[in-house]
Amino acid sequence: MGNKLLLDQGSGGLASHRLVADVFLRHLANPVLARMDDAALINPKGPLAVSTDSFTVDPIFFPGGDIGCLAVHGTVNDVAMLGAKPLYLTCGFILEEGFDLDDLERIVASMARAAKKAGVRVIAGDTKVVGRGAADKIFINTTGIGEVVSSRPPSGHRARPGDAVIVSGTLGDHGLTILSHRQGLSFEAPVQSDCASLNRLTLKLMQRLERVHVLRDPTRGGLATTLNEIAQQSGVGIHLEEPAIPVKPVVASGCEVLGLDPLYLANEGKLICILPGKLADQALAVMRRDPLGRDACVIGTVTAENPGKVVLRTGLGGRRLLGMLEGEQLPRIC
Amino acid sequence: MGNKLLLDQGSGGLASHRLVADVFLRHLANPVLARMDDAALINPKGPLAVSTDSFTVDPIFFPGGDIGCLAVHGTVNDVAMLGAKPLYLTCGFILEEGFDLDDLERIVASMARAAKKAGVRVIAGDTKVVGRGAADKIFINTTGIGEVVSSRPPSGHRARPGDAVIVSGTLGDHGLTILSHRQGLSFEAPVQSDCASLNRLTLKLMQRLERVHVLRDPTRGGLATTLNEIAQQSGVGIHLEEPAIPVKPVVASGCEVLGLDPLYLANEGKLICILPGKLADQALAVMRRDPLGRDACVIGTVTAENPGKVVLRTGLGGRRLLGMLEGEQLPRIC
């Protein structure tokens, strides 16, 4: 049973207005959104960070989250990685005719909770409905806007030899959760997505440590791909110590079963922080005081050697190049 | 033949980076986008107008445009309707595995031309690839940011009794083009989408006529639905003179064939301007000097009677209520 979405609810007419009022405005209401003009009017200060992301994750509900809160966390985090304070989100929904309206409401309510927790407001939205089979249930685009709080925002271009490479916690949780859930696998211990908004953690880092060089969240493509991007943008090498890289035992064994490498799996609530080596302890102290940075640790260093490359020193002392994610097909992970 | 999109190109790994470099950056490049951090850094002035819109139009190529330029025009126009100067766009692509890469390139090139013409820069983007059958070819979300140039931005809440209601040109062109193209119909005269960016026209209006009360582009749901929204937001009545409403003969006859009402069809390059009646001639003069406002005319007035309603006086002198679009199924018109 349950109410199903009709094509008409995307027509822009009366049925659309009712859907917007009943579902979207009810959960996401705020004075800016409530004006319902063609565009929202905001008055932020100073330079801004802007990021956009579309979410097509399958399944749409998974242990630890759903496509709604993920769409908030993902974009909040991208804005936060510029050392900015995320303030505003826009949301674009593409919905399939026949989609369950109770599921839609559950997703929108989850977005509202995630937005409230992250301190951002949804200021503009759009809903399109396409015929059965023209989309898979629900896709969400979010665009985030935040105020830049630092005079020198962190950037993938700013890694320098001698910098320490820190991660805020264990790797691969989100990716393994989605892939194992999709395949109907269960493990001895529960595994769940790490999806969370990191903006309070990044703000603390920026306030206490002016000299953060790079902040980046290793989502699609995982740690290895993100570090390759940074190595190339900054023209530096990155050397990692494999034994130092935190991976939950259940994720490590799940990866073995599925033939996956946790260093290439998506994370949705973790960040990479690169800053001068002598500040590493201070950064770790800040991160470990935050629940989302409890397992933070130094995993490597930035080098002048091997510019553009990421080199992993394994537990046995061998070295291997970690390239970007290549040839694997892990669609709809976020 | 032709190159087809692979799932791998949405993985976030090496294949994704190549796609971004080969297609997106090549056409849309600018210094902000080129930094390729998690978020873009911009430094706009003063209050901002922000709007988001997803585009799912079917067919993706149609007479007068394509989903790419439409995604630029649509969001540029929404920002412009706040009397703002659109400056920045973000783009989120959701692509179906197997989508033709030549078509993708044609669409991105069309976006680039439309953005250049409108004077906006694409500052951030995202690409997701979903499996065959999980989306229909290509969906595009654009979010636009513009600087508000007026101390009292136009708003759907500001229509006042005595105001004139002006449209910038003929109605129904886009909607009829899409629907007839989809059904394989052709008419004696060519019909094509009016899709265009109206921001230069709105800027002229705002500069010459401080007292513009409402600007709104009548897209999905058409003129009738948009005027109902304004009547409700402002708590006023809107009286229209049917003979004054401009509709191209080919659109009028096409609508008769298909059983459609041009007042409910989507427009993608037209605006409604509502302002004090005594300024109507001045506004018409400004609009008619612009190629996109050549056919501008006054179509009605704002009244204190019938608050929240739109009343149409027909050519025969009768009156009827024009409600919002209701019960019709015209999906994927934009």
UniProtKB/TrEMBL annotation, chains A, B:
PANTHER family according to UniProt: CARBAMOYL DEHYDRATASE HYPE, HYDROGENASE ISOENZYMES FORMATION PROTEIN HYPE
Stored Pfam families: AIRS (PF00586), AIRS_C (PF02769)
Signal peptide annotation: none
InterPro entries: HypE, PurM-like_C_dom, PurM-like_C_sf, PurM-like_N, PurM-like_N_sf
Residue intervals of the PurM-like C-terminal domain: 160-311
One of the GO BP terms on file: protein maturation
Name of protein: Hydrogenase expression/formation protein HypE
Domain PurM-like N-terminal: 37-148
Similarity comment: family membership: Belongs to the HypE family.
